[in-house]
């Protein structure tokens, strides 16, 4: 009998006092959509419930699960939504006691024991699990499925051997967008130029070694999709869903320079009307590349800089040169592309002086946008291991891990002081007369006007919180 599978993305609400609460995005769960696409390729019936945008009560969710009647319920388990994931697992198990409840995602990967010990969870799939879900549907003997932790009939926890990551990303079908409520998705405020917009992932793995980042992606096994495959998905999104903008969500989009040039040249040659943005590192951009990216529709680049203090950069293994960062921000703006930077408070070695230095760096370089965050010690990161060993982990619950809560209690820095600088940074950067005038002068479209209005409203709500 062919098994029926239901994949669920838990609801997620940013904590009070988070800037992301005011500008939060609603993007599709690409991980679940990728797994669903591969399941469909193998003729396995699959449905997706994205509870982040589909607001179900517990009773309604139970009714929906009963209606779909899946033999397997796969639940996305990331750290900020893990409590909600456990709640969904309970509902699923009580609604369909014979169903197999499977957790997958980053939290399931780095905290598999915690997840499998929940009495409503039967299987934990770690790492890249697209093919794991296919095997779970096709193989009745769990002992023969790679990449899982499971409970046998006696309740004993069994760990199987690892599953090798997918090496040829082009072999994976495009995400199953048709199973998602595409009309309900929208980028974060300030992170789009035209709608409808969508995100894409073109690679897996990251060359960085940042201590605050999940170590599972910091592997040498970095893989990329081909330019042809990426372009085919862009065309598909344009034709099927009238997508006007793409946000490339790779950690380092320009890592494979030749791929980026090829994509840009094809967009230009085929006159594809698409706006796009990306994230990358300052050492992987140059003037020539900026020119072709701009010509191909790139309008915004985000650079992760994190701190303006050399000691902190060394502590977090962020191998960047601040003078080069200054040059790249200036070069990006001069090239007609929005320069966005990401900065962070609360890492190892942070003091009031270093936080002030970081704010001053933002004021000095004057990028088009800055996102200030508070370091979160996510499980699976070196920051988490360091803080746990030193006894610096706070008593925050998992759902407070959203880069706005002080989860690492440094001995020389109080939570109140970090939050003070967190808010001070946004106020000093965004309420400067110079910045306000620049924003008004750059207002060109309906989206620009809407962005300015909601930005002001969001910032005022943010400052009123706490």
Task: Characterize the structure shown.
With 466 residues, the chain is an alpha/beta fold. The longest helix is centred in the last third of the chain and has 19 residues. Strands 2-1-3-4-5-6-7 form a seven-stranded mixed sheet, sandwiched between helices. The radius of gyration is 22 Å and the shape is globular. It has two domains: 155 residues, Cobalamin-binding domain (Rossmann fold), CATH 3.40.50; 279 residues, Alpha-Beta Horseshoe (pyruvate-formate lyase- activating enzyme). The protein contains 17 helices and 15 strands. α2 packs across α7, α9 packs parallel to α10 and α13 runs parallel beside α15.
Helical percentage: 25-40%
Shape: globular
CATH topology of the largest domain: pyruvate-formate lyase- activating enzyme
Estimate the mean pLDDT confidence.
90
The low-pLDDT segments are: none
Proportion of residues in extended strands = 15-25%
Largest sheet: 7 strands, mixed
Number of strands: 15
C-alpha Rg (nearest Å) = 22 Å
Q: Give me the secondary-structure category.
A: alpha/beta
């Amino acid at each position: 009998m062919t098994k029926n599978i239901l994949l669920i993305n838990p609801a997620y609400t940013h904590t009070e006092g988070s800037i992301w609460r005011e500008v939060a995005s609603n993007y599709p769960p690409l991980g679940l959509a990728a797994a669903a696409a591969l399941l469909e390729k193998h003729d396995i019936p699959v449905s997706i419930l994205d509870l982040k945008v589909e607001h179900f009560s517990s009773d309604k969710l139970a009714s929906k699960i009963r209606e779909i009647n899946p033999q397997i319920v796969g639940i996305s388990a990331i750290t900020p939504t893990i409590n909600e994931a456990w709640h969904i697992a309970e509902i699923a198990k009580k609604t369909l006691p014979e169903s197999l409840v499977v957790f997958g995602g980053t939290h399931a990967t780095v905290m598999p024991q915690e997840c499998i010990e929940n009495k409503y969870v039967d299987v934990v799939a770690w790492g890249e699990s697209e093919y794991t879900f296919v095997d779970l549907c096709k193989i009745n003997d769990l002992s023969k499925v790679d990449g899982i932790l499971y409970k046998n009939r006696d309740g004993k926890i069994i760990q199987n051997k690892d599953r090798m990551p997918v090496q040829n990303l082009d072999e994976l079908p495009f995400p199953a967008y048709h199973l998602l409520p595409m009309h309900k998705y929208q980028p974060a405020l300030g992170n789009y130029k035209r709608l409808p917009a969508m995100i894409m992932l073109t690679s897996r793995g990251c060359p960085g070694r940042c201590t605050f980042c999940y170590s599972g992606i910091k592997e040498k096994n970095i893989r990329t999709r081909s330019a042809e495959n990426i372009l085919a998905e862009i065309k598909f999104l344009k034709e099927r869903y009238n997508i006007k903008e793409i946000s490339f969500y790779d950690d380092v989009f320009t890592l494979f320079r030749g791929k980026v040039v090829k994509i840009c040249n094809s967009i230009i040659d085929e006159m594809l009307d698409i706006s796009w943005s990306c994230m990358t590192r300052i050492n992987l951009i140059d003037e020539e590349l900026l020119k072709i990216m701009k010509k191909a529709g790139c309008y915004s680049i985000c650079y992760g800089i994190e701190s303006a203090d050399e000691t902190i950069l060394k502590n977090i293994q962020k191998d960047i040169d601040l003078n080069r960062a200054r040059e790249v921000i200036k070069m990006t703006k001069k090239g007609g592309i929005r320069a966005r930077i990401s900065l962070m408070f609360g890492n190892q070695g942070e003091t009031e002086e270093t936080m002030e230095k970081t704010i001053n760096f933002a004021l000095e370089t004057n990028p088009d946008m800055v996102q200030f965050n508070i370091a979160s010690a996510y499980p699976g990161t070196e920051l988490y291991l360091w803080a746990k060993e030193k006894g610096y982990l706070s008593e925050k619950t998992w759902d407070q891990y959203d880069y706005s809560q002080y989860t690492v209690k440094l001995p020389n820095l109080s939570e109140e002081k970090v939050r003070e600088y967190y808010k001070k940074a946004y106020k000093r950067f965004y309420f400067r007369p110079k910045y306000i005038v620049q924003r008004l002068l750059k207002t060109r479209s309906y989206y620009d006007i809407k962005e300015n209005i909601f930005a002001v409203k969001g910032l005022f709500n943010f400052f009123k919180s706490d």
